[in-house]
Specification:
Layout (H helix, E strand, L loop, with lengths): L6 H6 L15 E3 L3 E10 L4 H4 L9 E8 L4 E6 L4 H5 L7 E10 L17 E11 L84 H9 L3 H4 L7 E8 L3 E2 L11 E9 L2 E8 L1 H6 L8 E5 L2 E4 L8 E5 L7 E5 L20 H5 L6 E11 L3 E4 L8 E10 L7 E6 L4 H5 L6 E11 L8 E4 L5 E4 L4 H4 L6 H11 L3 H7 L1 E2 L12 H6 L7 E2 L1 H9 L10 E2 L7 E2 L9 E2 L1
Parallel strand pairs: 4-6, 10-13, 15-22, 18-20, 23-24
Antiparallel strand pairs: 1-5, 2-3, 2-5, 3-4, 5-6, 7-9, 7-11, 8-9, 9-10, 11-14, 12-13, 15-17, 15-19, 16-17, 17-18, 19-20, 19-21, 25-26
């Protein structure tokens, strides 16, 4: 129930249309300040086009916004025509809004969207953004109102936007939201909820007994490749006990022409004593389990399907784990609960020092450990999937390990570990696994960096990672820690850096070579063309342009004087 002084109550109650009436003729303008509490992104599906027939012209994303007037909260959907305000980080959490214009959406329930309620929902169709009160934004402080100490969860919801249970998208049949700036990380509390307990209620008498698998990886492979109907046509009920060796990042496959509540998958490379196999987690299984398993964990599986591995060069299998048809049963097991003769082998690591990387070939896969000396700001680049629609988020890291004067440069893309990436601060001890070495050609000096593979994982101090992982006992790690104890902390701290502009590898000194490396991108940009390309940029997006112009003015500032400048 909204408070009596609620701005939304005064503004919106008189604009509700009757049942199944078109909403385009009804609108309400809120002349008072309202504030953005939260922005939530998701992709369109088949039913979304009924709400927004022209949304195809504005990309695949939709945004739900939680607004407040300090008396109550209201959830609305942003009209896709305003998406650029979000993509350029103008409309964001903490923003102060004025003259917000709302239109009620249709009240009929959509067959394609069973989660859509019959109650009226509102669309934000125009707005003036006056300022922002976010912690990370110092601009427009005088226009915004600082409300960081307000407990938003205690405010009531306005009328028909009252929420029961966890929030779900308003205009698509999805059960989770996407992060604002990439499609690889997860977003929302649903990913961190307590593990399912279905295994705990079974066979309570056997909880103290030693576990033994009823089938092995090699037996499953042989049965599938020989065409055994119990494996090729039906769900496998036998218990498989395996250890996770590698864990992929999340893969989002949501499409605007398909309805899927939770279009995610993740791949686990796992093994037992008889062989290795890929385990594919599908849809809501990712939400329930992805954050609760890690490389090195032992898991038991039953009620799964065996399929042909779609990426294998030769005949091989993969295990498909889903939440229905059938509903898979999963449990994380302590090592002590598995019979010693069935205990899967531990993960292996291949740690490379900076000295060893200098002599290693291009493309080699490796693990590294180092002291983080530089953590770059998050940036985004267009994917090279042919469409270039998706923006991939990354940052540069510089690690030191004492084996050479050459630092280890890592171009680290998202790994579905958002909490870890936020803790990547200078002087952290960082371990990156399953990286790929990139050797830069045509350079007079040695130049290389490391970047992600599908299975890259990152671990750093401050989150308890290192004490849980088996690599802590390896010789390269112990040698690094011994060197770390000998450092002068004050001297190291004086060299640590975070954020700022950074480019690596260094650009070519020859303009001819630089233009040749652009591979079909536009050449020199002038006037309107340059302005158009700049205006197309999204928040944190990085692109390189070539311009031909006359320098009319140079602006610079002394080191440390961010707010002052001298003009020559």
């Amino acid at each position: 129930m909204a408070a009596t002084g609620c701005v939304f109550q005064r503004t919106l109650t008189r604009t509700r249309p009757g049942p199944n009436k078109a909403s385009s003729s009804f609108s309400a303008i809120c002349r008072q300040f309202v504030f953005v509490v939260e922005m939530q992104r998701y992709s369109r599906d088949q039913g979304s086009s009924i709400y927004f027939p022209q949304a195809v012209l504005n990309g695949e994303d939709l945004y739900d916004i939680t607004l407040t007037d300090r008396d109550c909260r209201l959830r609305v959907t942003l009209d896709p025509g305003l998406n650029r305000l979000v993509e350029r980080h103008i409309l964001r959490s903490g923003a102060t809004l004025l003259n917000a214009t709302f239109t009620p959406a249709m009240t009929a329930q959509l067959p394609a969207c069973p989660r859509t309620s019959g109650e009226s929902r509102y669309t934000l169709v125009s707005v003036e953004v006056k300022g922002c009160t976010s912690d990370d934004d110092d601009d427009d402080e005088e226009d915004g109102v600082r409300m960081l100490d307000v407990d938003w969860d205690s405010l009531p919801w306005f009328g028909s936007s009252a929420v029961a249970g966890s929030l779900v998208p308003l205009r698509a049949n999805r059960i989770v939201f996407l992060p604002l700036w990439n499609n690889v990380d997860y977003s929302g509390e649903a990913w961190k909820e307590t593990l399912p307990t279905q295994e705990e209620d079974e066979d309570e008498d056997e909880e103290e007994d030693v576990r033994c698998p009823t089938v092995t990886v090699s037996e499953l492979r042989d049965a599938f490749l020989s065409g055994h109907r119990a494996v090729t046509r039906r769900a496998v009920q036998h218990q498989l006990i395996i250890r996770i060796i590698n864990k992929s990042h999340l893969m989002y496959y949501g499409r605007t022409d398909r309805n899927c509540e939770c279009p995610y998958k993740a791949v686990l490379e796992a093994c037992d004593r008889t062989g290795s196999v890929c385990v594919v987690l599908w849809n809501s299984v990712c939400v329930s389990w992805y954050c609760h398993v890690k490389p090195g964990d032992i898991i038991s599986l039953s009620c799964y399907r065996v399929k042909q591995h779609y990426q294998a060069e030769h005949d091989d299998i993969e295990i498909s784990v889903n939440s229905r048809n059938p509903a898979a049963r999963i449990a994380v097991l302590p090592e002590s609960s598995v019979a010693p003769e069935y205990l899967p082998p531990a993960p292996t690591y291949s740690f490379y020092s900076s000295k060893k990387l200098l002599d290693s070939p291009h493309g080699v896969l490796c693990d590294v450990i180092g002291l983080l000396m530089f953590s770059g700001r998050p940036e985004r680049i267009r994917s090279k999937d042919g469409r270039g629609a998706e923006l991939l988020e990354y940052r540069w890291l510089q690690l030191e390990d004492s084996s050479s004067d050459q630092p280890i440069m890592v171009k680290l893309f998202s790994t579905s570990q958002p909490e870890t990436h936020r803790k990547l601060h200078p002087l952290s001890v960082v371990v990156c696994t399953r990286l790929k070495l990139i050797k830069v050609s045509d350079q007079t000096n040695s130049c290389f960096y490391l970047t992600n593979t599908t299975y890259t994982q990152v671990y750093c101090t401050g989150l308890g990672h290192h004490s849980e992982m088996s690599y802590r006992k390896l010789r390269p790690v112990r040698q690094f820690l011994q060197w770390l104890r000998s450092l002068d902390e004050a001297h190291v701290l004086s060299r640590a850096l975070i954020g700022g502009f950074f480019i690596y590898p260094p650009p070519p000194v020859s303009l001819e070579k630089y233009m040749k490396d652009r591979r079909g991108e536009p050449g020199f940009l002038q006037g309107a063309n340059f302005k158009r390309e700049v205006e197309r940029l999204c928040y944190r997006e990085r692109r390189t342009f070539c311009i031909q112009a006359t320098i009319a003015m140079v602006t610079y500032c002394h080191r440390g004087e961010v707010t002052k400048s001298l003009i020559t």
